[in-house]
Design goal:
It is built from twelve helices and 13 strands. The strands form three sheets. Strands 5-4-3-9-10-13-11-12 form an eight-stranded mixed β-sheet, sandwiched between helices. A three-stranded mixed β-sheet has the order 6-8-7. β4, α7 and β5 form a beta-alpha-beta unit. α2 packs across α3. It is globular.
Length: 305
Amino acid sequence: MMNTGLNLQKKLDGIEKLARGSILKRFLKNPFRYVFAIGYWRFIYPIKKIGKFRKAETFFGKEMQVVLPSATEIYLFGAKTHDSEIRLARFLMDQLMAGDTFCDVGAHFGYFTLLASQMVGGKGKVFSFEASRATFGVLQKNTASVKNIIIENKAAADVNKELIFHEYPVLLSEYNSLVAPAKNEFNVLKNNTPKEIKITGVKLGDYLSEKNTCPKIIKIDVEGAELQVLNGLADYLKNNSPILVMEYLMENNQNRVHEQAVIFLEEMGFGKYIIDENGKMVKCKNIKAAMVDRKLDSDNIVFKR
């Protein structure tokens, strides 16, 4: 397992270097794939507004189906390449061991779900939540043959009842949420109105208790609904201490929710940590200051008792 981990780290290092390199280098790596992906994103999707299904080979060896243009980076590089997501992948590879349990809240197409599945092995488990019906269909295809993954087309929330979920077109699927972002906060959403769909809400703490499990790590990426997820975990966290990883955005509408979520976790005894370039936790006194120092508009912050 150790050698496998080192090999994956080296592959991810290479992908990061390529993603940060010149357009020419990215083009030469796979000319046909690059031209197709970028051409579809820039010229075809704006006219047709229809996503294109394609298969991608991840750096950890698992094939997954993605929808262009929203998963262009996975299609081209086999990984999510934002700085925060590169470091999160390293963190999961460093922390997750055979037999562990991982919970992915806001799994999207299943990139981190599949990575965690590889790390925890056959004796481990991965529980993944994806509320978007369209996105869940892709997640379902990507995990159908993986026995240690359990997927739920439900919204982790603070109540066990039917909720309204806001679902955007494929290019903007990263904004799907129980909370509709204010359009004046996100210019890209000004001409796009989300569909409102009904989805089953579930208190994550109740769900995990029913499964009689305590994940080593719970990843939360739910675009402004973080506090709802945490409120649904409140009773569970009184007796359990998983590591929590939560997306944190800088100044915008959802940032206020993230600030409230941080206060919630601090009051429950969780400390704040930044993930460094090697995937290690580094104690953090001030999240905003750390993100400004790193010139990041978003990051994955770790919370641990």
